[in-house]
Amino acid sequence: MVGGDRRLEPAAFVAAVLVAVFLSPAAEAETAAAGASLRPGPFESIFAFGDSFTDTGNSPVAFYGYSPIMRPPYGMTFFHGVPTGRFCNGRLLIDFVAHGLGLPLVPPFFHIGDGPGAYPLPINISLEVQLGWFEEPKPSLCKTDQDCKDFFGKSLFFVGEFGINDYQFSFGKKSMQEIRAFVPDLIETISKGAERLIGHGAKTLVIPGMIPSGCAPPVLVTFANAHASEYDAATGCLKEPNKIAMLHNSLLRYAIHKLRAKHPDVTIIHTDLFNHVTKMVKSPEKFGFKKDLFTIGCGGPGRYHYNLSNVCGDEAATTCEDPSTRLFWDGVHLTEAAYHYIAEDWLNAIVGSLSARASS
Ligand SMILES: *[C@@H]1O[C@H](CO)[C@@H](O)[C@H](O)[C@H]1NC(C)=O
Ligand SMILES: *[C@@H]1O[C@H](CO)[C@@H](O)[C@H](O)[C@H]1NC(C)=O
């Protein structure tokens, strides 16, 4: 971290946190009962570090008092209308990945019932702090160093998404030049975090890239008065924020390249958000999305229905009839439908890397 500037922390504000899943005893019993006929998945657990794109329910605790996401219509599509603390109408990418790998959905690290006072507030959710949450209960997960290495070797680690918040909360407050200048520090933080996990015995890591920030409705609203020349004519997205996301992604790819060279026995999978979202923005009809692509599925009055004083979950907010026709859910976050499309590619990337590892 440079200079103690909170903008330099991945996951500066919104949601984020360590989530972990273990094969529940019930699932183990089922596997045992099914005997050899049930092919065991490649992983026994998932550990995830990240922000609201990854968080399966920590933020209501971490941001106690920020409750809109604990009200309908959050959760309307998959969780029988029950809000789970996910910033989505349904499942997130990580839920689809867990399911595809034969694991239960990833539970949050914090428990919603824990209530105020259970943790000192405000909770700092930087990657550094999240790593601490992972390391502290380690003795309860595994005993000896070898035990731990074996256990984490059979786990899948998500390092991110990180970056969306750092950029989104900086747009309009800092110059593009200032934002550009902190990209390398952010990448360094992610890379060091990944290395710390490798030190604990992680053998498989997924490190997602950035979305095209210039297509995100909150960013488009922040720069509502931008000149026509600042938009990419093919997408309607803002060029400069997208260039920063591209810089982030290319520095991240280079950092991953270096990590792979340094740790040849570790599988590091880089997953894409930028190209997927861009494709959806360019051809919404191919995905069943409506033409007014930047209009969010749930929000208040105003441009693209994005209105900070009337957010999804507020009483006066409105929800579109069919969220599967929308790319964006409540602002920057995507709908379950969008995550579902992207998850197929992520799963292929994960499974493909594992078979490459098995045959090398
Ligand atoms: C959050 O924690 C990190 C790591 O300990 C620290 O560097 C950073 O200054 C903290 N941020 C805030 C806003 O307290
Ligand atoms: C945002 O919502 C508030 C409260 O409902 C409303 O008064 C305001 O006009 C809205 N903003 C825009 C730009 O429509």
Question: Could you explain the architecture of this structure?
Answer:
By secondary structure, the chain is of the alpha/beta class. The chain contains twelve helices and seven strands. The strands form two sheets. Strands 1-2-3-4-5 form a five-stranded mixed sheet, with helices on both faces. A two-stranded antiparallel sheet has the order 6-7. One 2-acetamido-2-deoxy-beta-D-glucopyranose binds next to loops. Pfam families: Lipase_GDSL. It comes from Urochloa decumbens. Keywords: Glycoprotein, Hydrolase, Signal. This is GDSL esterase/lipase.
Task: State the secondary-structure class.
Answer: alpha/beta
Helix content: 25-40%
In DSSP terms, counting alpha (H) and pi (I) runs of 4 or more, how many helices?
12
- Total E-strand runs: 7
If you average the pLDDT, what whole number results? Answer: 86
- Low-pLDDT ranges: 1-39
Bound molecules: 2-acetamido-2-deoxy-beta-D-glucopyranose
Biggest sheet strand order reads: 1-2-3-4-5
Largest sheet: 5 strands, mixed
How large is the share of residues in beta strands? 5-15%
Termini separation (Å)? 37 Å
Looking at how many chains there are and whether they match, the oligomeric state comes to: single chain
SSE string = EHEHHHHHEHHEHHEHEEH
Shape summary: globular
- If you compute it from the alpha carbons, what radius of gyration comes out, rounded to the nearest whole angstrom? 20 Å
